What we know:
By secondary structure, the chain is an all-alpha fold.
Amino acid sequence: xxxxxxxxxxxxxxxxxxxxxxxxxxxxxxxxxxxxxxxxxxxxxxxxxxxxxxxxxxxxxxxxxxxxxxxxxxxxxxxxxxxxxxxxxxxxxxxxxxxxxxxxxxxxxxxxxxxxxxxxxxxxxxxxxxxxxxxxxxxxxxxxxxxxxxxxxxxxxxxxxxxxxxxxxxxxxxxxxxxxxxxxxxxxxxxxxxxxxxxxxxxxxxxxxxxxxxxxxxxxxxxxxxxxxxxxxxxxxxxxxxxxxxxxxxxxxxxxxxxxxxxxxxxxxx
Length: 270
């Protein structure tokens, strides 16, 4: 098992460092420019009334007449670039085994090691979960590095941010679990990546459209973003226990189901 961990770490540390560095830079930049963006929001809403509805849909909650400094903080954690980096890392990582190994023709060597298929699979899962913690930590670090440039009324405390970070990590787990399940059923990594991205994109769009279109609201529960509402967390100051539990359940069920598929399926590289 130690050899499997070392193998996985050797293969993914550069990719994870690259994604983490990009997330740190993006969060630092967004945190730095957020006060200037906040100052011009009134003029933007006067010229583009749809912009307010767009932000409300992105946040997944209704906005009042004014967007205050506390609401603006939340935009950092729902920004499409931030979400895209996290989801891309989860999907790229979680389609390595077995789809990536089958695609490269190395699955025979991997499964020929003195370890069960389940051990190989869950060893990969363990490294992925740790890499996800590194990713969200890098996002938090980027935010904290430039948060002192924000006005005092816009500057969140670490206690305010940590529940949002925990919820965001659970979204990462749910997305990665879905990617693992798709990968477990596929022989081609490109196809697995495409299907996983399509599922995640559809989930995001469903949550977004449900904010505007009444017929879509009954189906919003099927979106992972329905369980990630940092605006509500900031507003209430409470930990999102129900949302975290739901996302972990989705991710956990998908991971276990993927493990069973890998353990039982016929794998052939010919």
